[in-house]
Every structure is written in structure tokens, then in C-alpha cells.
Amino acid sequence: MDPEGLTRLDRRIAGCRACPRLVAWREEVARTKRAAFADWTYWGRPVPGFGPPDARLLIIGLAPAAHGGNRTGRMFTGDRSGDVLYQALYDVGLASRPTSEHADDGLELYGVRVTAPVHCAPPANKPTPGERDACRPWLVQELRLLRPTVRAAVVLGAFGWQAALPAFAEAGWTVPRPRPVFGHGAQVELAAADGPPLGVFGCFHVSQRNTFTGKLTPEMLRDVLRTAAGAAGLNPHEEPGPAKRG
Question: Rounded to an integer, what distance in angstroms lies between the CA atom of residue 182 and that of residue 153?
Fold first, then answer.
């Protein structure tokens, strides 16, 4: 485990300007803002991962939201997708609180780190393949730094799945050929020549399109998180109460 290495990586990610389209978009959004957040000073930079450096479970999304992570500077913080994800993490005992509003709200994740294959907010939430590939080295470095402790990963959505598999391979795990196909509830174990395997779990993305239509329900998300947490060797205490209702 190299906590300082991960901190240095996060700083380097936050200073990246490799993709002109993404740089222009994230900075334009930070200047013009949304009316509801007119009094905010937007982050307007690449958003690094969030969570402890000794995480056993990694959650991989798609990219920060224009008025979510691009505003707050923390993954899945301040948007509807984050509301769903952090509520579920809290429900299964992997987060200290059910909401994620801003970077200094006191939220802690227990044994979990959240990241993305693209660190800048993209127009229409759609990074190009070139932008995905340009950002991959950051994910590879993050995975290498987490390898001493990480034992499972939940990948949200097909885009994240397609972006993560090559990164897993570059970071030292063996990805089968043909590559495993994404699906909600998909599970695959990636062997490593010089260490323990990594359990990879597919989950529909926590986008509003999926959660509002019921394609992904809170119970479906909690089920994947529980299974992945068990594979990672985490034994979270599940929170009782109305928040658990799917």
C-alpha cells in the first residue's frame, strides 16, 4: 500500500489537460454554472478518485457529471446518480452517511474507493473513444497502487466495463479472451501471476435514465454491492430502516 503515491496521483489527475474538448467543456460549465448553483465556485477540473488508499472494493463509473463532480470536485457528489449510489453504500454499511453533497461534508467510505475511466465531465455524458483511451493510464496507475489491497471491483455500465477491462490487463490481471460481456450481475474472476485474483462485477449504471425507469432498482444495486463486498473480504453492517426499501 502506498498512500502517498495515491495522493500524488490524485493531484496529477486534477491538473491534466490532455483532451482539448473536455477541457473546454468542463471549464465552460464552471464559468456559466447552473442557476441552482450560481453561488458555487465550481471545481472545473478533472475529478480524482475518492476513498481510502487501502480499499478492498473499487467502484468504477463513467465520468463526472457536469454539475455534480465537476462542481464539487468529488466523484458522484452533488448529482442524482450519486444520491442513488451513496444511499446504497450506506444501506449496506459501506459509507458513513447516505448523502454526498460536497467535498467537505464528512462522508467516509469503509473499504471502498470510487473512481472512473474518464476524469473530466464530457458533453452529453459521452466521452469519445479517444478520450477514454487518453485517460486510461490514470486508471491503470490507480489500479497498480491499489493492488496490494483491492480484491473486487463493481463496474457501472457497459462503457465503464469496456474501459476497465484493458486497464485491469495493463495493471497486472489476466483478462480472458474473448473478453467477458457486460451485463447486470455479470461476474468474472481475473487471475494475476504475482498476486491474488480480482473479482469483477457488472452493474447497470446509476444514471437517472436507469433509476427513474426501474431498470436499476435500489435493491438490485444493493445486491451487487453486497456480493462484491463479500468477495472483497468486507463484512459491512447493513443499516435497518426505510432506506432499505427498493
Answer: 13
Rounded Cα gap, residues 38 and 221, in angstroms: 33
Contact 121, 69 (CB under 8 A): yes
Does the CA dihedral 148-111-221-85 come out positive or negative? negative
Task: Specify which residues 201 forms β-bridges with.
Answer: 154, 187
**Amino acid making up residue 235:** N
What is the C-alpha separation between 140 and 135, in angstroms, rounded? 9
- What global pTM score does this model have? 0.94
Backbone angles phi, psi at 230, to 5 degrees: -65, -40
Phi, psi dihedral angles at 48 (to 5 degrees): -75, 175
What 8-state DSSP symbol labels residue 71?
Answer: H
Neighbours of 22 (CB within 10 A): 24
Task: Read off the pLDDT of residues 147-204 as tens digits, 9 standing for 90 and up.
Answer: 999 999 999 999 999 999 999 999 999 999 999 999 999 999 999 989 999 999 999 9
Q: Cell 457486460, residue?
A: 182
What CA–CA distance (Å, rounded) separates 41 from 73? 10
3-state secondary structure of 72: helix
Sheet with 57-60, edge to edge strand ranges: 112-115, 57-60, 152-156, 195-203, 187-192, 173-174
